[in-house]
Amino acid sequence: MKTPARGVRPTGGLPGRRRALIRLCRPADRASIERLGHPPHVADILCPRPARRLAWRLLGTRAVPVLAEEEGTGAVVGSVQFVRSRRSPDTWMFGHWRVAAARRREGIGRRMLVEGMRLLPPQVARLYSYVDWDNDASIAAHERLGFESGRTLWGKAPLGVLTTVGPATPALRLEPVGPRDWPVLFTIYTRAMGSLWLRLFPELDPRNFLGGTLGGLRAGVVAVARGQSGAAWSTLAPRAGTGTPDRSVAGFVLWEGEAVTVFADPAACDHGFLARAALQVMARGARRDLEIGLRGLPRSLAARPGPIGLQVLMGMPDVMTRWQG
Ligand SMILES: CC(C)(COP(=O)(O)OP(=O)(O)OC[C@H]1O[C@@H](n2cnc3c(N)ncnc32)[C@H](O)[C@@H]1OP(=O)(O)O)[C@@H](O)C(=O)NCCC(=O)NCCS
């Protein structure tokens, strides 16, 4: 495989093809965005109505939708949306990256990212997106543009079916945690999210990693998942307050309102762990059809994903030197 290309490539496009102009999205572009293949709810996000724009403003959400428009015809041939992270204003995510099928592999996707970045505040330093695990074309395009892929996978699955993906025994214990468990939780978090995530969010530390302020969570309840001691569950997480290894902490569960996310130590995570964690979450009253988030899935799970929708993190922690240097 070739080395990922760096820098901005000439923007002329292929001979005989109309050149595309990269510009901000306008409310009047809604119908063209649907014609590009986005469903109406995505068109709503790319071309937000005034009420949604106001809600975003009140919540502090900064979103910048960008289009590729064919010169001459005015046809919309590509879209992408950049969203500023709440954790770190210098880190932005992008989504809804799409180029019309007939215009792919001409450099339009690249131009929307590279030139779109120039429409964002100048201090944007880090960029990432999530890609469906089986979207080989998108993963290849990200890699060619210089993105790195995360070591662990993200997932989501309805609780009920997740309980069936592995054996229910030996049971997992879920215990409430307090501030003194924070170092163990942070260790699990760093393993679950992986080093690429930590480079995208260099400010993360044991006091703020779950979105909380010093010493606590802003929202949510956390419980630690303890498995039977033994190889399948062991982790090297230090036991809170002692510095000695706690071999039984395999992950933790975070409740934020209705939303539930399981953070697993990838070394301890398999189908059995996920099934048992799901059983414990349901035992605490969560609905069978609730779709929960999964973090820290080892890549080996992708060989038999079953009902789990898998995604890979693609990140660029050094946008300035790659695209603006
Ligand atoms: C992903 C997508 C937006 C890329 O847009 P594009 O305009 O085709 O991408 P570009 O032509 O700018 O290509 C950028 C780089 O990726 C490479 N690339 C693009 N598609 C590729 C593919 N299918 N396989 C291998 N490499 C690919 C290009 O060769 C180029 O690298 P190079 O300049 O070093 O040769 C486009 O394929 C698409 O719309 N896919 C469907 C929607 C989708 O899956 N979106 C992503 C969701 S995360």
Walk me through what this model shows.
This protein has 2 domains: about 1-125, Gcn5-related N-acetyltransferase (GNAT) (Aminopeptidase, 3-Layer(aba) Sandwich), CATH 3.40.630.30; about 155-315, Aminopeptidase, CATH 3.40.630. Mean pLDDT is about 85; it is low at about 1-10, about 215-220 and about 230-245. It has 9 helices and 12 strands. The chain has a 12-stranded mixed beta sheet with strand order 1-2-3-4-5-12-6-11-10-9-8-7, sandwiched between helices. The protein has helices at about 30-35, 40-45, 50-60, 110-115, 135-145, 160, 180-200, 270-285, 320-325, and strands at about 20-25, 65-70, 75-85, 90-100, 125-130, 150-160, 175, 220-225, 250-255, 260-265, 290-295, 310-315. The protein has about 325 residues and is α+β, with helices and mostly antiparallel strands. The protein is elongated and about 65 Å long. Coenzyme A (COA) binds near residues 5, 99, 107, 129 and 144.
What CATH first level of the largest domain would be assigned? Alpha Beta
Number of domains: 2
> And the CATH topology of the largest domain?
Aminopeptidase
How many runs of DSSP E, i.e. beta strands?
12
How far do the termini sit from each other? Answer: 24 Å
Helix content: 25-40%
H/E topology pattern: EHHHEEEHEHEHEHEEEHEEH
Describe the largest sheet. 12 strands, mixed
Strand neighbour order, sheet with most strands = 1-2-3-4-5-12-6-11-10-9-8-7
Strand content: 25-35%
Low-confidence stretches: 1-12, 213-219, 228-247
Structural shape: elongated
Instruction: Figure out the total of helices.
Output: 9
Average pLDDT, all residues: 85
Heteromolecules bound: coenzyme A
**CATH architecture identity of the largest domain:** 3-Layer(aba) Sandwich
The whole-angstrom Rg is 22 Å
Structural class by sheet pairing and helices: alpha+beta
